[in-house]
Amino acid sequence: MKIISLIKEKSMVARLVGGVLVLFSAASNAQGWSVPQEIKDLYVYGDMDRVLVSTDGNIEYVSGCSSTGWRLSASNEKGNDRIYSALLAAQLAKKKVRFWYNDSCSSDGHNYFNVIRIDDRNQ
To answer: Is the pLDDT of residue 93 over 60?
Structure first.
């Protein structure tokens, strides 16, 4: 009986440790689509390739990042231009957007994004 009890105990500990490891690995690799958000303000810096977006969001996607601030992280100027144009179109059409975010936060506390999706289901 003691052996069976000991085996069950070790099995439970192994499952618990495995579950905790899965949770930590999922939390440290956070990425995905945000919920649909309304664009409140767009900030474009002319002296650098920086576009900041302020939204009505209220979810902290990455620990320590703003729940309403997003910073464009496109790899080239053309990418920045295309995404900025899409953001302007969404704002003018009063469409909500989703941001593809990753597990990083800018030094000024914004979530980085490099893809947006204009959400057509929010009419």
So the answer is: yes
